[in-house]
Design a protein that fits this description.
CATH class: Alpha Beta
Number of helices: 4
CATH architecture: 2-Layer Sandwich
Largest sheet: 4 strands, antiparallel
Order of helices and strands: EHHEEHHE
Number of domains: 1
Strand order of the largest sheet: 2-3-1-4
Shape: globular
Structural class: alpha+beta
CATH topology: Alpha-Beta Plaits
Length: 94
């Protein structure tokens, strides 16, 4: 299994709008072969974390390309670039 985690710093006043818009990317992920799960975690401090789980690195890369295009077209004005990205093999799970 492969994970892709991205953290964004969002203006707390814009958080509801960002979450509402970015939630649409979950539907995009569902179309990618090898997609396992997608989570969007909202922190009160203004940090938004996305977690994508995939069967392998290739599926994660395919999802990244599709999601990047969707975000550019639908949410770039609110989201911006992630401040932290982590991608790699999941080595422990429960």
């Amino acid at each position: 299994m492969f994970a892709a985690i991205r953290r964004y710093v969002i203006d707390p006043d814009q958080m509801d709008a960002v979450v509402a818009r970015v939630a649409g990317v979950a539907e995009v992920y569902k179309t990618v072969p090898g997609h396992i799960a997608y989570y969007l975690v909202r922190e009160p401090s203004g940090t938004l974390t996305s977690v994508g789980l995939f069967v392998d690195r290739e599926a994660a890369e395919a999802a990244r390309l599709v999601a990047s295009k969707w975000i550019t077209e639908n949410a770039a004005d609110l989201l911006g670039a992630p401040v932290l990205m982590t991608r790699g093999e999941v080595v422990v799970q429960s």
